Amino acid sequence: MPKALETLVGYVSSGTGSGTFDALSNNANQAYVVRAYQPGTAAYLENVWGSTSAASWLLSIKSPRLHDDVLGLEFAVGAYTNTGSTVIFNPQELMPGPQEQMLYSTDTLSVTAAATTATNKFLGVFNVRYEDLGGVSARLYDWQTIKPLIKNFVGFEVTPVASGTVGLFGAGVALNSQSTRWKANTDYAFLGYSTSIPVSAIVINGVDVGNLYVGGPGLPNTADTGMFFVDQSVKTGFPHIPVINSLNVGGTFCYIADVTASTAPLVVLHFAELTNRIGS
Q1: 111, 130, 149: which is the final residue of a domain?
Q2: Nearest Cα to Cα of residue 55 among 74, 80, 75
Q3: Quick one: pLDDT band at residue 85, thresholds 50, 70, 90?
Q4: Which helix (H) or strand (E) element contains residue 148?
Q5: How many distinct structural domains can be found in the chain?
Q6: What is the pLDDT of residues 36-45, one digit of tens each?
Q7: Residues 85 and 151 in one domain
Q8: Is residue 240 part of a domain?
């Protein structure tokens, strides 16, 4: 049963305003169509975050197969935070606690957002999990499996830059682009991450995560992101912790997307060195 996680990132580059709902544009190779998973299994929308460039927005996720096709799942997303003279665009968690929405295989979701003020920008981050997604070979484990195998904790810095176009992933940077401290042919569990400044989304993509984008919001508090995948695994009971072999780090890339163009944070990826290789 090949399990999979996918982080979808969508954006509105310039809201119409006056309560008009605008469709979120997707990043390349992403769409709001639920992937065709194996019959007898399930998929869930388990997390949603939203970021705005200024005034408040409403976010809607709908489908005739969900509650309704008028507004469906609807969320209010607040404006940015002013801290002294600094404007901080913090992603806001919109599905806290145990909330998760079952999704139907091949269903097309309508994901739209309405700005209260015209020309403002919006970015949404959506995490989906698949119990059995054929053709994907993601190495995902639960905390009970990973914890007894931990030998050392380690952080690896990367320096991804958001695209000059708000909402798009910038150029990816390899996990070993800043550090050669990876031990040869060693498995590392990806526990979470920290960032020097908030960004809307931080993801990785490579063979060990099934060549899908996998990540979460770039929140300012490491208490929320430093053990992000561990926390998600414990919360859902579903394996969320990616295991990356050091042989693959040169072909595994970190990306960011943000509601501000060309954001350039320092990002540290938090890993645990494992005592032995696990799985296939």
Answers
A1: 130
A2: 80
A3: very low
A4: none
A5: 2
A6: 999 999 999 9
A7: no
A8: yes
* Contact (Cβ atoms closer than 8 angstroms) between residue 248 and residue 112: no
DSSP state of 143: H
Q: Which domain holds residue 84?
A: 4-130
Three-state secondary structure call for residue 215: strand
Surface-to-core class of residue 144, CB atoms within 10 Å of its CB (0-12 exposed, 13-18 middle, 19+ buried): exposed
279 within domain boundaries? no
- Within 13 Å, how many C-alpha atoms sit on residue 191's CB side? 23
Q: Measure the CA–CA gap between 148 and 127, rounded to whole angstroms.
A: 27
Q: Report the C-alpha gap between 23 and 122 in whole angstroms.
A: 11
CA distances from 168 to 24, 218, 256, 273 (A): 12, 15, 8, 32
Residues 27 and 150 in one domain: no
* DSSP code at position 109: P
What is the pTM assigned to this prediction? Answer: 0.95
Residue 280 domain flag = no
